[in-house]
Amino acid sequence: MTNTNDFRKYSYGSDTSYLIESFSYSRASHAPKLRPQEDEGLKVRKGGKMKSKSQLRAEQKAAFKKAVVVAGVAVISLLMIAFSLHSFAEKNELTRQIQKTQTSIANANSEYISLQSQLDALVSISTIDKYAVEELKMTKVKSNQIRYISVDEFKTRTQPESSKQAEKTNSNKTNN
After folding, report:
1. What is the mean pLDDT of each run of 10 residues along the chain (176 residues)?
2. How far apart are the C-alpha atoms of 63 and 60, rounded to whole Å?
3. Neighbour count for residue 74 (Cβ, 10 Å)
4. Which residues contact 132 (CB under 8 A, 6 or more apart)?
């Protein structure tokens, strides 16, 4: 068995009696009920003591000190945020420069490898032999063309006459 009171909590939003009642308070010809308003002007303290000028000045100084502290903390916080943002921007710029430099180094290394391989190809023995035979009209050395000379004979052939005379005088002194 179902009681009508069981569904009452679900019918408040769409029940017309509640809508009519709210309409009558807001749009009816009779004046709405007034709530008691609190006076937002001066408030009377319990105890009724008035503060002296020195006490008021001391409170003003304390309030000013608190305002200065709050402003100082705000300024320091803003400076820290600005410094953090600046350091992040600087870090990003340096990272970009490092990547650019690393790319340049990689390109230079690849160019070096390419030039080194070209140089190796140009300096190979077969290339030199081919150039000597075709361009310079040279021939390979035959065994009967090889001639051996001693070191003393080489020195005598290459030294000028003045050094030969100095050498003779030195050898004469050593012989005596």
Report:
1. 53 57 53 58 64 90 96 97 97 97 96 92 81 87 83 80 60 57
2. 5
3. 10
4. 138
Angle at 80 between CA 77 and CA 85, to 5 degrees: 125
Contact status, residue 127 vs residue 121, Cβ threshold 8 Å = yes
Going by the DSSP 8-state scheme, the letter that residue 171 receives in this structure is H
DSSP string, 63-94: HHHHHHHHHHHHHHHHHHHHHHHHHHHHHHHH
Q: How far is CA 135 from the centre of its chain?
A: 58
Q: Which residue has the tokens 């304390």?
A: 62
**What tokens does 44 get?**
């009377």
The Cα–Cα gap between 11 and 17 comes to 10
Q: What tokens were used for 112? A: 């070096």
Q: Which residue has the tokens 């230079």?
A: 108
Contact (Cβ atoms closer than 8 angstroms) between residue 23 and residue 30: no
Helix residue ranges, H only, the chain: 8-11, 16-27, 53-122, 125-134, 151-158, 161-175
State the Cα–Cα distance between residues 14 and 8, nearest whole angstrom: 11
pLDDT of the residue at 30: 57
Radius of gyration of the chain from its Cα atoms, rounded to whole angstroms:
55
